[in-house]
Write a structure and sequence with these properties.
Layout (H helix, E strand, L loop, with lengths): L7 E4 L9 E7 L2 E6 L5 E5 H6 L1 E5 L8
Length: 65
């Protein structure tokens, strides 16, 4: 799965604050994610995070122009 730093991930389950969107801060064997609702940061294994991703929201940066 192609997940990049800066992407917003919509997860299957929501965070206790009510938000289901997370911002990717670090990508590798682990993901460092920040909750878009409350700002809480977590470090989670890549396999576990990829299983729970519903949608990837990516800003169009004009790479293909």
């Amino acid at each position: 799965m192609d997940v990049r730093v800066g992407d917003r991930l919509v997860m299957k389950k929501s965070h206790p604050c009510g938000s289901s969107e997370w911002i990717v801060l670090r990508s590798g064997m682990d993901f460092r994610l920040r909750c878009a609702g409350c700002g809480h940061e977590v470090l989670t294994p890549r396999a576990k995070a990829e299983k729970n991703i519903r949608r990837i929201l990516r800003e169009q940066t004009g790479e293909n122009e």
